[in-house]
Amino acid sequence: MKHNGKLYLELFLSTLRLSAFTLGGGYVIIPLMKKRFADELNWIDEQEMLDLISVSQSSPGPIAVNASLMIGYRMGGIPGALITVFGTVLPPLLIISFISFFYRQFRDNAYVNAVMRGMQAGVAAVICNVVIDMGHSVLKSKSILSAFLMVGVFVAVYFFKINIIWIILACASIGLGSGKIHAHRTIHKNATESGDEKRK
After folding, report:
1. pTM of the model
2. Is the dihedral angle over the CA atoms 95, 98, 101, 103 positive or is it negative?
3. What is d(CA 85, CA 73) in angstroms, rounded to the nearest whole number?
4. 182 alpha-carbon distance from chain centroid
5. Nearest 10 degrees: CA dihedral of 148, 153, 156, 161?
6. Cα dihedral 94→74→44→131 (10° resolution)
7. Alpha-carbon gap, residue 200 to 195, rounded angstroms
8. How does the average pLDDT of the chain come out, rounded?
9. What pLDDT score was predicted for residue 59?
10. How far apart are the first and last CA of the chain?
11. From the CB of residue 43, how many other CB atoms can be counted at a distance below 10 Å?
12. Proportion of the chain above pLDDT 70, given as a percent
């Protein structure tokens, strides 16, 4: 895709709008990013979006910022990455700066506390939706290894409270090993087919 002003403006406005009107953190904004960039703009496909989310989650820092950075870099290089990060952090920066001046009043206000409790329920529902969507994407790939890892990680985190760092490293190692095995089999298969054709 050509890197021009229209592309950069669309990246900025999209991330700015998503960040400004999304409450609940990175896991809430992810499905909206997918809807915007994959479903509406058709800039990336669903599988690539899932890959970007996986890398964003595995990297240090807020997942919303990481995902925005990767999408921006994917579509517009380094300028696109900087623009999307700026669009993502600008709304919360302004809102938190404003709230910090009135923190005491907000903290003790019964109406604000009631609103926050209602928002928590809505955010929980959106996060469940993210889990279902991502789980469906993994199962749709029809990969037994991916399905096994998904269930195994859930059990390891929820029941055994294993540190997520070790889980990420283990999953990355398994994925790397699986990729090497698949590549080796592909090379061997191609070599075998090539040898059969020469014999003919």
Report:
1. 0.64
2. negative
3. 10
4. 25
5. -170
6. -60
7. 9
8. 83
9. 78
10. 44
11. 18
12. 92
Q: Is the dihedral of CA 56, 1, 92, 36 positive or negative?
A: negative
Backbone angles phi, psi at 187, to 5 degrees: -65, -45
Domain ranges of the chain: 1-142, 144-200
- Helices and strands, counts by H and E, the chain: 8, 0
Tokens found for residue 20: 């400004």
More confident residue, 174 or 102: 174
Residue that has been written with the tokens 């669009």 in this structure: 87
Rounded to 5°, the CA angle 132-24-98 comes to 165
The two tokens of residue 85 are 């990060």
What are the pLDDT digits (tens) for 63-84?
889 999 999 999 999 999 999 9
Distance from C-alpha of 25 to C-alpha of 22, rounded to nearest angstrom:
8
103 vs 127: CA distance, rounded Å: 27
Residue from 20, 16, 4, 22 nearest 68 by CA: 16
Tell the residue number behind the tokens 């087919």, with chain if given: 193
How many CA atoms within 13 Å lie on the side-chain side of 172? 11
